[in-house]
Amino acid sequence: xxxxxxxNGQQPEGSNKKNRFETKVGxxxxxxxxITHVTSKPAKYSMVTVENHIRTATRIAILIALAFxxxxxxxxxxxxxxxxxxxxxxxxxxxxxxxxxxEKRYAFEFLGAWDLDDFLxxxxxxxxxxxxxxxPELHAIWGIGAFVGIRDNASSSATLGISGKFGAGxxxxxxxxxxxxxxxxxxxxxxxxxxxxxxxxxxFTGK
Length: 207
Description:
Number of domains: 2
Mean pLDDT: 74
Number of strands: 8
Number of helices: 1
Radius of gyration: 33 Å
Oligomer: single chain
CATH architecture of the largest domain: Beta Barrel
Strand order of the largest sheet: 1-2-3-4-5-6-7-8
């Protein structure tokens, strides 16, 4: 009588095939599960990041396009700011301002600003104004600029970005009273969007 394969330490041929099949199935299951786990989260995060960058880039492009278009169509008579002025703004952000005229159609506005979330920054804009035909004292204000600042919190960091300024002013010589909106696009250390605005008062030294 021949010895049984089981007695000789050998598995029957059918049992070996079954074990090999189970091993292959287990290997592929683990491999597929690992690949799914590794790739699913980064892909989701990557899509969100790309969408945020696209949204931010679109806002920046629109702001720059509007500003350049406004400068392009501004007539020579738009130069309302022709003397040095100092002033202040109340709102978000709160700021002290200095306005420096140029020989061009625009003036440079410099702000030292802060707001209530411990954000101190310097902001500069090239501004254009245009008076209305019926009311010369009333005028539109627009421009584009940049800001740099320091955020003072648990993880203090510097920030850098571009900004715009859009509003309306009214002259009561030697003062100007104005309201404005200031969209700010933070580019470093991360992309973010803030919308500020407020009420401002300027004193023109040459009027």
